[in-house]
Amino acid sequence: MGRQLVPADEANRKGYFEDTAFLALSRRMLATACRQEAGGHADWGWAGEQGPSAAALESFRPEATALVAEGRARGALWGWKDPRTTMLLEFWHSVAPDARYLFLYRYPWEVSASIHRLGAKVFSEHPDYPERFWLAYNRALLEFLAAHPDRYVLANTNALVANPSVLPELLRNQWGLNLQGDLTSALEAELFEAAPPADPLPGLHALAWPEASQMLSALDAAAHLPSDGAQRIAGFAPRLLHATGTKPRFSIVTPVHDDGVYLAEAIASAERSCTPETELIIINDGSSEPFTCAFLERLQKRGYRVEHQTNRGLANARNHAIRLARGDCLLPLDADNRLRPNYLRRAGEVLEANPSIGVVYGDRLEFGLRSGRVEVPAFEWEAMFDRNTIDACAVFRRQAWVDAGGFDESLPALEDWDFWLRVWLSGWDFHHVPEITYDYRVRAGSLTQWLKASARYRELRRQIRARKD
Questions:
Q1: Given this model, what pLDDT does residue 385 score?
Q2: Which residues of the chain have pLDDT under 70?
Q3: Using CA atoms, how far apart are residues 397 and 429, in angstroms rounded to an integer?
Q4: Which CATH number applies to 250-468?
């Protein structure tokens, strides 16, 4: 696979198994052949809706030919791994017309999660890029498969991890390769993150990105080792659809304003964590972004409760949802965050055992531009007047919300900090659960980040601290 491979780092502690010479050449080719002004991420070979220019690649042919010649000198069986090659397949086929291609493809929702875990700024600023990359790469892949049906083996990574012994047999049957060694013993399945078959995310992702669902079906149809993606999507049985029967105990309220690209993960986390006595209310706070509007419409048609209002801000949207909610215990879930499965159950036990407690909250796991666990301290009112330590993603009683007068809709930010202080001043106790209860996405361009650099932020802090007096 090469004599000098990309070394391991924090993102991949086992290494990348990519030949540094081929990788460096691919990056230079893509940087030259992709129009930078078209948007996208040229380093990965995608500029807006355009791939690399074939004409611009020709100047690299001598260098590519030399690399192939060097590889041939290693022996009869050699090759390289580089995902960027997917966007350069016809070029490399012209350089090495006798090459064979082993393609591995993953579920789009898993690829998106993996890319966002990188914490790169470009994906924080453009959260739709991971899905668009997946579509662009696999579109290029399917075009190559159609043009060269005898040159490839295509396998789904999830199916391969589930049955690794199939791959050597597949390569032997397709290409006559008699590979030695036990792939099963070499596989470290714990390094591969995959959702269980009944997870709600595949079905929700298909609602958000129907074109990705269609492309996954096309990949499965062409694969020698296909996935079970179609069954995962079709098997989605949501539990949080709009119901008017038995009064729920918990109400999860989720405001959305043009951030629908994150919403499938948030709803999936609510589905995983909900008890039989839970409802979900999604408030469309005047969204105008096309993807968000289309996804909300599909969710509503699927049976989820989606309420619409003109853009009035986060505090107003939460209050509106809470007024519509029927549960006595409330949980605000922002569209870009994710609940942990046991959160509602743990909070419910605390509230049931302690009538004086009005708010239950826990630690969070940050991901995106920052990563790691944030251990939130136990509630101390003096410390809370200095700075907020409790995110809005906490479970509180409806009566605590009533006693505090709801979220202050005049505040453009920090409304959760202000709300917790007024809940405490109303006589309610707080309880900290010493475990991770939700995942908090740290992303570029958030309102809080903008405010912290402004005079308005300092003014809001003074306004909130004044409640102590």
A1: 82
A2: 36-38, 47-50, 445-458, 460, 467-469
A3: 11
A4: 3.90.550.10
Domain boundaries, the chain: 20-234, 250-468
The Cβ-side half-sphere exposure at 301, using a 13 Å CA radius, reads 9
Q: How far is CA 9 from the centre of its chain?
A: 21
Q: What residues contact residue 173 under an 8 Å CB cut-off, 6+ apart?
A: none
Q: Classify residue 368 as exposed, middle or buried by CB count within 10 Å of its CB (0-12, 13-18, 19+).
A: buried
Which residues, 6+ apart, have CB-to-CB distance to 192 below 8 Å?
Answer: 157, 161
Q: Which long-range contacts (CB under 8 A, 24 or more apart) does 290-293 make?
A: 291/128, 291/208, 291/260, 291/261, 292/256, 292/258, 292/259, 292/260, 292/261, 292/263, 293/260
Rounded to whole angstroms, the Cα distance separating 45 from 47 reads 7
